Give the backbone structure.
Amino acid sequence: MEPGPPGGPAASAAGLPLSESEQQRYSELFSRCCPPPEAAAGGSSVGELFRASQLPPDTLHQITEVCGAKRVGYFGPAQFYIALKLIAAAQSGFPVRIESIKSELPLPRFVALKNDGDVRYGTPAELHGVKFQVPHATLEKNSYKRTDEGDKQEPKSPPMSPICSPPASPSTYQRIPLTYGYGKSRSGLEQQHGAPYEVRHTTHQQDGPSSGNYGAKPAHACSTLGRSLSVEREQPDSSAHYSDDPWRITEEQRDYYVNQFRSLQPDLNSFISGSVAKNFFTKSKLPIPELSHIWELSDVDCDGALTLPEFCAAFHLVVARKNGYQLPETLPDTLLPDYLQAASLKPLRDCALFDSYSESLPGSQQTRDFSRTEKTSAEEVPDNSALLQDTKKDDKQALKVSTTVKTIPKDFQHLTVKTAPQEPNALKARPRSRSYSSTSIEDAMKKGEEPPTPPPRPQKSHSRASSLDLNKIFQQNTQAVRSGWLPPPPPALPPRPSVSQTEQVSEVELHPQMNRPPSQAEENSSAKKEVVLVQPPSKPARRKLRTETQGLETPELSPTINVTSSLPAVKPHLPVQKPSSKQKRAIQTAIRKNKEANAVLARLNSELQQQLKEVHKERIALETQLEQLRPVTVL
Amino acid sequence: PRVCAAANYPLYIRSIPTENELKFHYTVHTSLDVVDEKISAMGKALVDQRELYLGLLYPTEDYKVYGYVTNSKVKFVMVVDSSNTALRDNEIRSMFRKLHNSYTDIMCNPFYNPGDRIHSRAFDNMVNSMMMQVC
């Protein structure tokens, strides 16, 4: 890679000597990362750009720190320029120091950044072939996806397209062996960065279409900037860098998917029934045969229901398809449920709750667009689950709580899972927070009806998901939390949550009793598997008595919000309670799991019974016809 | 050899050597009558056995027809060349079982409406592999 056009001394920015070419490039990059309205570049897009520079993650972290972005929390023009200069320095082999950038340096090289088609960007040999096409596709996807949201990205696509080779080739996205290196390590880094960057990067972000569109939505994961839609969109790009493989789901995308899953099925450990999923995916306006094929690919156990990884895979395929990628004949390895389950376990610790929260809000809006439609239609369906009661917010909350630990209490989009234990609360809190921002989410939550008995998942370390009870409890907790927007629970609380957790865990009822402290405690105990139900033991008992349908809804909203906010604060308190509650938790966990298993089996049984009845009816009808015909034919 | 799953109208038809398609179609349709006859012969009391393999339906001419019907009245008909004597009964049974399993997998797909033509690629792949084994 060679440095870009030699720049003269030129003006300097922010006291930094920048050549003309550098200025040009930097401002261009900056504007890409930072949509006009904002004055600072979004973390995710910046992150993507940084990743594209092909520097090791710690170097990028270093750069981020040195340039001051961490200090101020965002990438302002000065920070951005400094960062770019540092990147150039690093790429030239200089240490990451402020001093290094005082001298003239070649322009930083970013892999697959096709914006200017500059050599500077360095066309990564390995990646490019595929990248070019993928980015383009990604762009397409982005623009496609964004259509309903906004077309910010679309304008970007055109400039990119000339640079990218004909994106159309479906083969490109297939198993692009792109280096995934950045993504994971950078997740934290990138997530911090603003989304705008990512949008630009989508082109070279091979991560595939999904990242483009959906990525944006869930992207919030870490963007510190709670940008509006633009940020959200960009976020997906950042997630893209995780993997240039379009069939790999980035963190943001995953978050988004998990959020969507939650909207359909509050219990992340459970699965979405076929009809619910059908309605949901039908909203994507893909033709039925394609949806049928997607289902075939993603429902690996052929049970007519989608578990979370299956759902993520299906969603990812839908996104890919919408972005122009052809559907593969077989499920890519990165979309296998096993793979996804393992991947989902990785907590998205990187994203700060705050970020996620704020980000999720904007993102959620976008997702809401999609999810709203989905919710309206899909929601009706899931009533098979016995837990209808949980529906409404409770479900959502419960899901959140129980859902994979990973998800951070962000709105739909941010399902980043910070820590398993916390997540349940966070999860609930998140949906709630969203509800504030968008009512649709709440509706969606309601629709998400009760999770049919989530199969025990390894991810759910905090194991709320396992039983509905937990969900309910959590939901309640989260609700309580949200409503209060309570500040992080006081230190006294932590001991309780552990206790309450264990107790509550076993309880299914969703009682909105969860006051803030409980929810917060939950967050604190996020470390604990179960959702820490801060509420005192007596409450769980009450919960049990109550039916699930207790209106968790309203309280849920607040609790979730509180949960999210309190989570960070709560965490420190968690360790205190653990010892005492561990045993209880173990028992609780076992109980929950058994309950979940029972619930699942019961549900299956009821479904099979229904089918059996139908089949019997058919048979009877046919037999009747036969009887009627027999006298005629038998002579 | 050809496979046709039909609830009195073909949902899926596949044949390997592709010539004589029409003849195979005709054969399958006529064999449907035989299947119905066998079903009715079982009687209501033998409901459980409806799902069973129906056995050789039509050994005349230069091919053999095997039938299989499910509880939901979906029939699988297989036409095999008589020259292919390597196929034993239990092989045919296993083939039908595989077909049935694939069919239920298709049913699990919420986007599939019972009665639609079957376009599932997984099903196609399975049928193709099966037919390759035979031919």
The longest helix of chain B spans residues 21-42. The interface with chain A takes residues 40, 44, 47, 71-73, 104-112, 119-122 of chain B (CB under 8 Å).
